Amino acid sequence: MQRHPDVGVPRVQLFLGHIVRLCTDEGLANEPDWVLDSTPMWCFGAVLDTVRLLGDGTGMLVRAWSRATGRPVATLAKELDVGWVTAPSTKGWFGIEWRDGTARDDVVTRLVG
Fold it and tell me: Degrees (nearest 5) of the Cα angle 79, 80, 81?
């Protein structure tokens, strides 16, 4: 797991914290609900669960931004290059062989990015 070089914290943790702060500052969330996936990342199932959590979280953020700005979700998803937001399934949208470790790593990196 990549850690930020200045603070030694996992990048995904910093990313999620940043998103929550942005939503709170913009008035999109009055009292944030914290959700934690504590399953280790080295397990096949854990990566899939993490993909779903990150994909669902991205979708929630894009839909909230859509409501706040009055812009269509599909337009925002295209502009932000997060096409999985409008797909029936995050995992299905990526269309990879989930047993391929490199492909899984690439998906998680893209979701976090």
Answer: 95
DSSP labels for 38-105?
-S-TTSHHHHHHHHHHHHHHHHHHHHHHHHHHT--HHHHHHHHT-GGGGSS-HHHHH---TT-HHHHH
- The pLDDT tens digits for 10-41 are 777 878 788 878 877 887 766 656 665 555 55
| Angle between helix 11-25 and 101-112 (nearest 10) | 30
The closest alpha carbon to 47, from 97, 11, 113, belongs to 97
How far, in Å, CA of 101 to CA of 108, rounded? 11
pTM for the whole thing? 0.57
Contacts of 41 (CB under 8 A, 6+ apart): 1, 47, 50, 108
Domain ranges of the chain: 1-36, 43-106
